[in-house]
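dumping this here before i forget
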Amino acid sequence: MGTDGHSGPLAGVKVLEFSEIIAAPFGGMLLADMGADVIKVEPPQGDPWRGFQPLGLREGRGYISLNRGKRGIVLDLNTPDGREAAHRLAMNTDVVIINYRPDVAAKLGIDYATLSAQNPRIIYCDNTAFGRKGPYAHRPGYDLIAQAVTGLMSVEARQENGVPLVNALPSADLSTGIAIAWGICAALYARERTGRGQCIHTTLMASALGIQNTRVMSIEATDTEQRETALAKIRELRQSGSSYRDQIDVMTNLRPVVGNIYYRCFQTKDGFIAVGCLSTPLRRKLLAVLGMEDWRIGKRPEEVDPSIPEVKAFGAQLVEQAEALFRAKTTDEWLPLLDAGGVPAGPLKFTEELLDDPQVIENNFLTSVDHPLMGPVRMAGPMIQMTETPLAAHGPSPTLGEHTDDVLREIGFDDEHIAAMRAAGVLGD
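structure:
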């Protein structure tokens, strides 16, 4: 158990977090779930995410969901006293997480070069939108922009009146938060072997590319000509002012899938159900449950090329037949049949339903914290569990500046000095 009373695999590890919005706060929260003592530093006005879906009292749903288990302090890093406090904290910490613009950290004196000179064992995770090099390096960025520039937004092809819409889940941010926690855990392990700290670079852009895997891949022997043809068509459509829908159609046809009944959602008599059959044995099992046949299974790729009219027509017929079958029974009637047939399947639910879902409850996928202003809060629990060093939610998100005085006393500031800093506005109001 760490000196802060936390238990978990990272108990005793101290983390100093200069962060806002989603990516870095999520990464810090994952470390807090592992038992690290995470101190979140906010400016006097607070993390802007406190204003997302506001609840009053400078609290917001977005902030509460991403900052549990941390201690929160306020420091104005534009003041000498604020920077001195930050440097003292960094001298006594294992990890620093920062997601300011590339130029801001150096301006405030909390860049890696400055802090590692004072504490060579420090592990410094520097998260930016696009990295430190290249034409985008100077730009700030958010999940929306990362989705746009990496093609992630086009994956779902959501649009309104011909204008692309951001994917509702901030996947670039959230995957970067996981990358932050993953990288820091690896760096802590490396430091145990070498005694040296290091700088970790995470970016929204790299994370957004990484989670697209096969879309960000080109096999020279098979993909080059198709890709170049499609991109030439895209350039032509853009220059002519064609619709986003037309552009999406070009890219969809780059690797067309027709007659898909194996990996999709179907409407039932009273809802929707998802089936996932990504192997030939599973596809045969689905066909057996449905009482259908698909002559395409086992054929060579060139024999089932979706550009062949007969293949395309058969695929459409197959879909129509499967859809009609699923609509004939309720979801609760289909699930036992699919389970008995060994077909991976599940009902479509809205996220809010899962707060009372028996599968979620029996596996302890939720946790509860008692927020000092909002009262009891139920939320998604730690993403993993470990037998010997279990993870837990170590308290709620901090109110703005809740732990400022305690943390400053820990690094040697006396009450008189703290009072003077507060009077000068260094610690907020």
